[in-house]
Amino acid sequence: MERTEFSYFYPLRVRYAEVDLQGVVFNAHYLTYFDTAITEFLRQAGYDYKALFTSRGLDFHLVKATVEYLQPIGFDKQIEVGVKVAKVGTSSLTFALGIFDQDQTPCLSRGEIIWVCSKIGTHKSHPLPEDFVNMLI
Length: 137
Hints:
It is a single chain. By secondary structure, the protein is an alpha+beta fold. It has a single domain (3-136), classed as Roll (Thiol Ester Dehydrase, Chain A), CATH 3.10.129.10. The protein has helices at residues 28-45, 49-52, 130-136, and strands at residues 8-13, 58-69, 78-88, 92-101, 107-119. The protein is elongated, with a radius of gyration of 16 Å. InterPro entries: 4-hydroxybenzoyl-CoA_TE (IPR050563), HotDog_dom_sf (IPR029069), YbgC/YbaW (IPR006684).
């Protein structure tokens, strides 16, 4: 995964509470980094959760989350999480993510998050709203 594949980056600094006894980011925190970056990516795109989803009785379910640990990330490291929409399906949305040292090229970690749109209370897929899809394209 290359830095040039991303046009959006969310900057973070690794906090002491996020590292393990080996001095590297504990594995579960990568998903938190991904989630935070996706939230900010959508905010920057104009996404309004209440207006676009909950007011229509819709929500997202996470159906897949993968993380590949390519290089260790240590305490106080300034990182950037790249986010892009890799695929838009009828009811699903796939995000590709990459973690990089600030302003550096090598990918330290990469991942994929897949959400499925559903009608609240049904746990059944529902087509993505057209205005939401248009916001992402």
